[in-house]
Write a structure and sequence with these properties.
Blueprint lengths: L17 H23 L4 H24 E6 L2 E7 L3 E7 L5 E6 L1 H6 L1 E7 L6 H4 L1 E6 H25 L8 E2 L20 E2 L9 E5 L12 H4 L1 H16 L7 H12 L2 H27 L3 E5 L2 E6 L4 E7 L3 E8 L1 H6 L1 E8 L5 H4 L1 E7 H11 L12 H28 L5 H24 L1 E4 L3 E6 L4 E7 L3 E7 L2 H6 L1 E8 L5 E8 L2 H9 L1 H4 L37
Antiparallel strand pairs: 1-2, 2-3, 4-5, 4-12, 5-6, 7-8, 9-10, 10-11, 11-12, 13-14, 13-18, 14-15, 16-17, 17-18, 19-20, 20-21
């Protein structure tokens, strides 16, 4: 028997302005074929006619796509329908919606339209999840509010159906005055009450001051932009130069000519170095202009961007923690960044960003209010871990230095060009290895575990206990000789796992058993109850939420 269709709103189309954006967006893919037609046709009337037909064809194609595409909320799902010769319907259950992102690329902002993407946590790309490219800004915000309300209401109704009716803020319907207002989920018109922790009071956590754009040069990703642009230009010249009748030998000859004129080469490098902070500030502004983090209706909403304005919604009850990251320059300046650890979130490096590069105290304060404080009092790792950090930072460069010195003495003095930098890097490996060791740490405060590692990119992950779904204890041959192992907490969010590197053979299993005692206690042997490193009894602490009850549930102990 077919499912009952109860349309919450009538079928809608995208804004007609997509008839302008779609052909323009298709131009890059048409550029090379059009250029080929014009070159081969000798810029004759016929070649221009073929080129004009291609442009007109793209406009017709855009018009057909616009006419045949509709979207509609039908009962407990959203339907994206495309019908020309055959009919295709993509169905998105409202209760599976994890977030709704609204972005506006430059051309869209100029025309007053936006791109709305629906995140269902399916792990696919954004278009597979659901995308409306070309809704008006007002329609995008309206649809975002309606979809998020429906997603929360459906979840709350499901909780009530299981017999749980916790006290929380009640919601009687989606935004008033909009299609779909009322209480479609509750036939008798009663209000829907949401799960505890599902509603976050509406408030603004952070608005980035304009003067903080000066922090852009302290981020390595932005600072190296000039060199990335030069490398991209060279690669483009090699890849597409023939299409524009640029001989590859010309590019190679230009590079050789610059190399043979050291003053010009030095001048070019100086210009790139001088451009680094300026371009870093520009790039930081492009991506993080007016960065705002706020909470509304159970969602954390982050908005940012100068050219392309983007608003990302993270369902608060699916946030399992956060990751605080610092680079070397950021640490010296007292800065840092933060990302949310969220279940079912694709592209977490972009969509999960909670704070851009900003003062450390401010980042931790904002994240502490939005999610929770960072764990302190990290437990140090054994001295053997320091020896491993030093060995890995120094030994590879010493091997290279020894081989190049031997080559320089036996064959040619040119090998000294590689030997000297290798020796310098080996010397720099000493402070690097020591800093890597100082960065190691792990802890558990009874509700959240935290692990930290790294030097050039020091990262501390703070994860709620309920997010842990398994453990992996691994040892390499070198770790076995040193009496160390790596403990990785499997988490159904973020990167999927967070590791405590080079922990002692006793402390590692004890750390895992401390977090989930019922899982690991049967596999650990302790001679003296209550002694350091002993495992608590299984009944001392219940297993985390959403975790299998069986001790062997993790699957990889």
């Amino acid at each position: 028997m077919p499912a009952e269709r109860t349309p919450t709103e009538r079928p809608l189309r995208l804004s007609p302005k997509v008839l302008l954006t779609d052909p323009i967006r298709m131009l890059p893919s048409l550029l090379l074929p059009l250029a080929g037609v014009l070159f081969l046709g000798g810029f004759s009337i016929g070649s221009f006619g073929w080129a004009a037909m291609a442009v007109v064809g793209s406009v017709v194609f855009a018009a057909v796509r616009w006419v045949t595409f509709t979207y509609q909320i039908v009962g407990d799902r959203m339907e994206l329908t495309r019908s020309l010769i055959s009919r295709s319907v993509r169905t998105i259950p409202l209760e599976r919606i994890r977030g709704v992102d609204v972005s506006a690329p430059p051309l869209h902002r100029l025309l007053g339209i936006a791109v709305l993407r629906i995140d269902t946590g399916a792990g696919g790309d954004e278009k597979q999840e659901g995308e409306l490219d070309g809704v008006t800004v007002a329609e995008g915000e309206r649809l975002k509010a309606v979809l998020l309300w429906h997603a929360r209401a459906r979840t709350a109704r499901r909780v009530q159906a299981r017999g749980a009716a916790p006290a929380a803020t009640s919601v009687s319907g989606p935004p008033s005055g909009e299609p779909g207002s009322g209480t479609p989920d509750v036939p008798d018109g009663s209000s829907v009450r949401h799960e505890v922790g599902d509603t976050t009071p509406a408030r603004v956590f952070f608005v980035m001051p304009r003067k903080w754009l000066a922090y852009g040069p302290l981020s390595g990703a932005y600072l190296l932009t000039p060199f990335a642009l030069v490398a991209g230009a060279v690669g483009l010249a090699f890849q597409w130069g023939s299409e524009f009748r640029i001989d590859r030998q010309v590019v190679v000859g230009a590079g050789e000519w610059i190399w043979q004129h050291p003053p010009l080469l030095v001048a070019a490098l100086v210009l790139l170095v001088l451009a680094m902070p300026v371009i870093a500030v520009i790039m930081y502004a492009v991506f993080n202009w007016d960065f705002t983090l706020r909470a509304s209706e159970g969602y954390l909403i982050a908005g940012r961007g100068l050219i392309t304005r983007r608003s990302v919604s993270l369902e608060r009850r699916r946030v399992r923690g956060f990751e605080f990251v610092e680079g070397p320059a950021e640490r010296r300046a007292g800065l840092g960044r933060a990302w949310a650890i969220v279940t079912g979130l694709g592209d977490s490096e972009t969509r999960g960003q909670l704070m851009p590069v900003a003062p450390r105290d401010v980042v931790l304060g904002v994240v502490g209010e939005a999610i929770g404080p960072i764990a302190t009092g990290l437990r140090p790792h054994p001295p053997a871990a320091r020896r491993r950090r030093l060995f890995r930072a120094i030994f590879p460069w010493l091997v290279i230095a020894a081989l190049t010195v031997a080559a320089a003495l036996l064959w040619s003095g040119l090998w000294w060009v590689l030997a000297v930098p290798a020796l310098l890097l080996a010397l720099l490996g000493v402070p690097l290895g020591l800093d890597r060791y100082r960065s190691l740490g792990h802890t558990y405060d009874g509700s959240r575990l935290s692990v930290r590692s790294g030097s050039l990119r020091r990262s501390q992950a703070v994860v709620e206990r309920r997010a842990v779904v398994g453990w992996t204890l691994s040892q390499t041959w070198f770790q076995r000789r040193a009496g160390l192992l790596t403990v990785t907490a499997g988490v159904g969010a973020g990167t999927g796992g967070y590791a405590a590197l080079d922990v002692g053979e006793v402390e590692g299993p004890a750390f895992a058993a401390e977090v989930t005692p019922a899982w690991l206690a049967p596999f650990l042997i302790t001679d003296t109850p209550g002694a350091p490193g002993t495992v608590p009894a299984p009944n001392d602490s219940p297993p985390p939420e959403d975790a299998p009850a069986a001790p062997d549930a993790p699957g990889n102990g």
